[in-house]
Structure formats: structure tokens, C-alpha cells
Amino acid sequence: MSDTRIPTSIPEFVAYMEDTDDYQLAIVAPATTANYLRWGWTAPESAWWHTNRQKSDLLFATYKNKKFRTSDNTEQIHQLIKVVSAYDHANHLLDNVANSANSINTDYEKFKVKRGTPLQDTTHSRTPNPGLLKPVITVREITHLQQHLTVRNPEEPESHGLPEGMKFARVYCFIGATEPTDLKQFEFIGNAKRGLLISNFDLADLKSEAWYYARYESNTGVLGAASEIVSAVIS
Questions:
Q1: Among the listed residues 159, 156, 161, 167, the one whose alpha carbon sits nearest the alpha carbon of residue 129
Q2: I need a surface site. Which of 105, 112, 173, 232 has the fewest CB within 10 A?
Q3: pTM score, two decimals?
Q4: Domain 136-233 falls under CATH 1.10.3210.10
């Protein structure tokens, strides 16, 4: 079985489904047929992937708006992630991407498969780089003039550790009424230790909104992509 990398983080999963679905239906020159045919996917399998991409988009449209997000909506997306993973394991879609004689490096990168592909050969020889890996940051607890933050690796959400080759999970904060439009408005407030960080406030900050994002920094000082922005009211 290939080293499948279907994300379990909701924002990462939705982005993954959008990216891979667009790609499996695309035609890459000099080929004259859709990509999925190069890997040996059947038309029903391609259609199944597209249908579930549409489901994830629809569910995420509600999820990303905090005013309408519910526990049922969140659970539906988590269930969809399990359904997609189970379908892949049963039908070997990502195995086919990894093993097809017609596959190219872009295929492996889009579907995040390495085992059995040319990407595996270079995994341990490259200098670790955060690339597009985005940590998942959440506000897990709110106390008086404090907010307790959790920063997790989307590829191993149950782990408290950093991804291989990463030195820090840097956390940034902005205090204001509306979400900032520029990351430069945020200030660095610390590195999450074992996935945890406490954000402290002054009395003057009471009832204001605190906005956060996180990003990885590699052992060589390379900064990764910014996470999704989250927020909570200071109490």
C-alpha cells in the first residue's frame, strides 16, 4: 500500500480534495486525455472523487463561517474524511498514482505519495523544509486574561511533537475588532512547546478579539506557510 497522505485537518483536507480533483480531471500536455486515465482510474472512480470533493466544499462553506458552524457540521466533515480514506484503501487510488508507469513527479506531489516513487529516494537526503505544511492552531481554553493555544502537525494530529526537521512552531497574535488583512499586522508572541502556548493579556485588552496564526521554522531557519487564522474574545 502506498504512503497515502490524505490530511485529517479539516482545512487541509478540503484544500487537498479541491487540488487533487482539479488535477485528476485536467489534461497535461502532451497527453490528450484526463490525468486520471493515466493512473488506471475508472470513470466511476473519477466521478466518485469529484462528488466527494463537492461534498467537502459544501460542508466547508458552512464550517468556515463561525456563526453557522455546528458540531453536526464538523462531525459530517470528519466522517467524510474517513469515507474518502476508506475508499482509497479499498480501491487503491493513490496506490495507482504511485505505481503507474505513466505517472510523473507532479502526480506524486499533488497526491502526497512518496513510498515506491522517486520522491522516496530523496526524502532523507534533502534539507528539511516546511514548504506548504501549515500547522493547525486552536484556542483550546479561555481563562481570565489568558488564552491557551494548541498547535498541531496536520499530518500527525494526535502528536504533540514537531514535524521532522522543524525547530519551532512560531505563534503570532493581533488584537483588534476585525481580522487583519495583512500578516504584517501580527506580532510574534512565542514558540509552542510540545504543541502548547499561553497567550497573556492586559486589562485594557478585555472584550477585544485576539487573532492568531502559526507557522513552522525549520532547523535551518526557513519559515513555512501561515496557518489558518483563528480568534477568540479576551475575557
A1: 167
A2: 105
A3: 0.52
A4: no
